[in-house]
Design brief:
The chain folds into two domains: 67 residues, VC0802-like (2-Layer Sandwich), CATH 3.30.2130; 64 residues, Alpha-Beta Plaits, CATH 3.30.70.260. Helices cover 31% and strands 43% of the residues. The chain has four helices and seven strands. A hairpin with a 2-residue loop joins strand 5 and strand 6.
Length: 138
């Protein structure tokens, strides 16, 4: 299953993340996963929200450069070595991982990993072949 991720360009200034998260909170949008990649001057905020279309619209209306990207959300057992096992499967299938991050979701001895891969269909097929559950939302 494919999840819609929101990527937002933001200046690397004090309080900018607070502004964005307050904007989403005030609109009743819940974040399920979040990651920031930054440099000295700017950052890319990546999020999975319960209302991705509404979040992107709101962020754009507030002047933020934002877009949706397809990513994979995969439930994995919350045990040592599970991430290494999945990484080996992607390597062996020849699917490159552009980036990944873990979600805030945690239930029933499982964690959710959010993955951006170069070939999403191949990534989904490989995970399904090896018995992993991908999720459409969380």
């Amino acid at each position: 299953m494919i999840i819609k991720q929101i990527s937002t360009f933001m200046e690397n200034t004090t309080g900018r993340l607070a502004d964005i998260t307050a904007l989403l909170a005030d609109a009743g949008i819940n974040l399920r996963a979040i990651s920031i990649a930054d440099t000295t001057d700017f950052g890319i905020l990546r999020m999975v929200a319960d209302q991705p279309d509404a979040a992107v619209k709101l962020l754009k209306e507030a002047g933020f450069t934002s877009r949706e990207t397809d990513v994979i959300g995969v439930e994995v057992p919350d045990h040592p070595g599970e991430l290494a096992r999945i990484m080996a499967l992607f390597r062996n299938a020849g699917v490159s991982i552009e980036y990944l991050y873990a979600s805030l979701e945690h239930k029933e001895d499982k964690a959710v990993i959010v993955l951006k891969v170069d070939d999403i269909e191949a990534g989904l097929a490989m995970l399904e072949k090896h018995g992993f559950s991908t999720i459409p939302s969380f």
